[in-house]
Amino acid sequence: MQLNDSLVRVTDRIRERSNKTRRAYLAQMRAAAADGPHRSSVSCGNLAHAAAACPAGDKKLIAKGGGPNIAIVTAYNDMLSAHQPLGGYPEIIKQTLNEIGATAQIAGGVPAMCDGVTQGQPGMDLSLFSRDVIAMATAISLSHNVFDAGLMLGVCDKIVPGLFIGAARFGHLPIMFLPAGPMGSGLPNDEKARIRQLYAEGKVGRDELLKAESESYHSPGTCTFYGTANSNQMLMEVMGLHLPGSAFVHPGTPLREAIVRHTARRVAETTALGDNYIAFCDVIDERAIVNAIVGLHATGGSTNHTIHLIAMARAAGIIIDWDDFSALSAVTPLLARIYPNGPADVNHFQAAGGLGFIIRELIGAGLLHGDVKTVMGDGLDAFAAEPFLDGGALSWRAAPKISSDDTVLRTISKPVSPTGGLVLVKGNLGRAIIKVSAVEPERRTIEAPAIVFRTQQELMDRFKIGALNRDFVAVLPFQGPKANGMPELHKLTPLLGVLQNKGFKVALITDGRMSGASGKVPAAIHLTPEALDGGVIGKIRDGDRIRLDAENGVLELDVSHDELNMRAPMTTDLGRDRWGSGRELFAGLRAAVSGAEDGAMTFALEEKQSLKE
Predict the structure, then answer these.
(1) Helices 44-51 & 56-64, crossing angle to 10 degrees?
(2) Domain 423-577 sits in which CATH superfamily?
(3) Greatest Cα-to-Cα distance within the chain, rounded to the nearest angstrom
(4) pLDDT, tens digit, for every residue of 444-499?
(5) Which of 1-10, 209-218, 269-278, 384-393 has the lowest mean pLDDT?
(6) Where are the domains of the chain?
(7) Interhelix angle for 228-238 vs 286-299, to 10°?
(8) Is residue 58 very low, low, confident or very high in pLDDT (cuts 50, 70, 90)?
(9) Hey, which of 31, 448, 488, 507 would disulfide with 522, CB 3.0 to 4.6 Å?
């Protein structure tokens, strides 16, 4: 199938833009690979330390160096439902590898915080920065240089991007990702959203709200809506870093255990010790990153990846920006309706045909680079499949050609919508992202006076007293990475949804984030430059008229250039957002962090520079 022209153009310009940084990255990886398996060059003392706690059989294998030694980097904790199943994986992996003369060691653990737990709490201000902490922890885990490959165990929002970034700096190694899978379906998403709105209106109490939330989030596994966590799993699969079809298999099932075992064997088969060496740096190239962006659009994935994917790509020497996202969104049809883009959850999506169906449709339409290298070898076609157990053995069959539920999953010929629904909006306010796949077409353009809020709480307080029953654009400045770590503002969605349901025209503009589950209220987010970086959002005043036009990519403040130059930037007390809950420890990261369109990165990779230079 001939590739889509826009796909080719975007890939070519990314390749040209990234020429210098990509060459530098690959040179580093080739140099590391040329040294051979690192255990052959470490001292006996180093090796003795590395194997001191191993069983006797593993000590001999590690010292001998004949079989691969696999690093396990895990985000396990038993508080978070998505990561709790990971606790049993290392023993399964070690046992499986011992059967083939290989070994595995838990090289390190990384923090795994949950935005669902910290939503609206001080800890949310650490959420975005946790990605880079995870990346550094991953690098430390792999730095012992006694490993021949790596298995990354993680699922949720910042965890997978952080693992990816850290792993990319050891890109000469084979790397595979291993998720836990989603929990079973609970309370229907429409009902959950309805009760949240009733609570916001004061029509039900906390007991009713807690009951609904507990019925939604009820067991081990990933939350079932299509937020950042499940978008992560889609990305790992479409980039060829999972076993095919492993993203949405439930934890605690025979099929999931078979996937864990097969992943361990596969990564051991692809080390430099054998004849089937597949390095991470050869799997992740410009084509793989473009495939990831296309997958995000085709499934209606998380807006958080307009930040994370930029940082992930940069870790492999590849420079992308929001123009690339926007151009690919314009030619990628939306094929799935998973909450918040529809009522279904990922379990319904998986049952209807899942990612194998999506990948086959996109390859057939020339919207994915099918000739990439993956952890399975050459070509993405292997991922247009679904796993099953055949007499207890893991096997694959072709993904279904017909969706079992076209309200959830569609073909290219009859998509949910002709575009991916992620739009770059720009104007005198700067550049921002808006996700419109869940926004009704008649609500995608709004022109209304601004109401400026200093905090989420201020908006919530004014809502409670009925002061927001009008058309307006809510403006929340000083929510960017330099100001307070760019927390998600997800708690505002039910309130603004209530006002929208009453017939008012409302929208949100912020230099902060919403959620991976950005929904039905138009929200121009990740606005850059942020207020603390001199962004115009810091000069907006109550009553200023703002035009947000997602159909035509416009974000304009109806204030003259001369008047804006005369206005002093708004001031705000950020001290309360920088102390408590450990936030004081992150002052260095706030000072070093780049803008949202640069990936909100806190460290330099190669010659880090603004994407707009």
Answers:
(1) 150
(2) IlvD/EDD C-terminal domain-like (3.50.30.80)
(3) 76
(4) 999 999 999 999 899 999 999 999 999 999 999 999 999 999 988 878 888 999 99
(5) 209-218
(6) 5-184+219-398, 423-577
(7) 140
(8) confident
(9) 507
